[in-house]
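User: Please fill in residues for this 333-position structure.
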């Protein structure tokens, strides 16, 4: 058998007894042929081990069958999970994915967008860096995921709803002395998931002083340090809401180092449902983002060729595990 790289369209056509144009129709799906002819062509392709030239196809069609995916932080476990879902959905549609990490830096983000354009990707899927304040500059089809910026079409989880679910769960368990690990602020305001938490707490009549809202990064160490700060300032706290699971896992470490039982003395709720949430001790109650649904809708909109909806929300789901329980009697400071 010839090496796969040496097999040409002409040889496939000769093997199948058809024209090169017919082989091209089958390989590229550009024109229907009879079932019998298609089977002869595909049999010839398998027999000879023919592999179409991606470069030639891109030159001929003007399409690379490649998507550019830009995420802000590969060390945040939620984003690799999201990237995997996007890659699976793109592959199902016959597309490859080029991945880049902006490190939550708007300057690196702009550089990556330029690189994607030079690489000839057909569309862009971008989770914007924290601090992105302006529209992203690109002529390619663009769908934002997870974060709204500059009026671009965006696909994201209903974070307000997710925050409400998390807070409502604690309210139903009798918690009223609650503090919040809020993650990064958004132009001096809490993000959407924290806004949902605060709105639900207000609805339940649970006040939250400004000092019980701690802003930080999203890492485990941020959660550990933030939990210590909140519990020092508010020792009466019976529950912590966290803007993501890594913050919650850091808070779990802090609670255990202080001799607090989770959930006996302190309940914890995270957000995202990363892989490690189910493996902590106790397993973490959290709000699940449906990364497969996010990926499916984002890829569909990026490839549709039509103007997408300005904002599409995917529902979230509360996942109750072992880190939450009834509120204990209020502890004295």
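Assistant: Residues filled in for all 333 positions:
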């Amino acid at each position: 058998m010839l090496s796969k790289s040496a097999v040409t369209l002409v040889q496939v056509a000769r093997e199948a007894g058809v024209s090169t144009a017919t082989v091209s129709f089958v390989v590229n799906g550009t024109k229907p042929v009879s079932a019998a002819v298609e089977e002869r062509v595909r049999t010839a392709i398998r027999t000879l081990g023919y592999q179409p030239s991606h470069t030639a196809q891109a030159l001929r069609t003007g399409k690379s069958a490649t998507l550019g995916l830009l995420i802000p932080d590969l060390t945040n476990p939620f984003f690799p999970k999201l990237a995997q879902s996007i890659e699976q959905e793109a592959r199902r549609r016959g597309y490859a994915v080029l991945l880049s990490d902006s490190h939550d830096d708007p300057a690196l983000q702009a550089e990556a967008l330029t690189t994607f354009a030079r690489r000839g990707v057909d569309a862009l899927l971008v989770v914007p860096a924290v601090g992105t304040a302006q529209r992203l500059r690109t002529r390619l089809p663009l769908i934002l995921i997870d974060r709204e910026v500059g009026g671009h079409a965006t696909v994201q989880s209903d974070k307000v709803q997710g925050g409400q679910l998390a807070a409502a769960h604690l309210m139903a368990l009798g918690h009223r002395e609650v503090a919040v690990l809020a993650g990064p602020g958004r132009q001096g305001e809490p993000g959407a998931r924290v806004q949902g938490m605060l709105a639900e707490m207000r609805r339940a009549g649970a006040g939250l002083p400004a000092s019980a809202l701690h802003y930080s990064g999203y890492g485990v160490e941020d959660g550990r340090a933030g939990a210590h700060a909140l519990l020092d300032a508010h020792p009466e706290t019976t529950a912590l809401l966290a803007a993501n699971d890594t913050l919650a896992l850091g808070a779990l470490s802090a609670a255990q180092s202080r001799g607090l039982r989770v959930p006996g003395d302190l309940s914890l709720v995270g957000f995202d449902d990363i892989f490690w949430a189910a493996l902590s001790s106790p397993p973490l109650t959290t709000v699940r983002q449906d990364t497969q649904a996010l990926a499916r809708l984002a890829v569909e909109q990026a490839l549709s060729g039509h103007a997408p909806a300005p904002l599409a929300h995917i529902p979230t789901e509360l996942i109750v595990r072992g880190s939450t329980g009834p509120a204990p009697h209020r502890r004295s400071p």
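For context: The mean pLDDT is 91.
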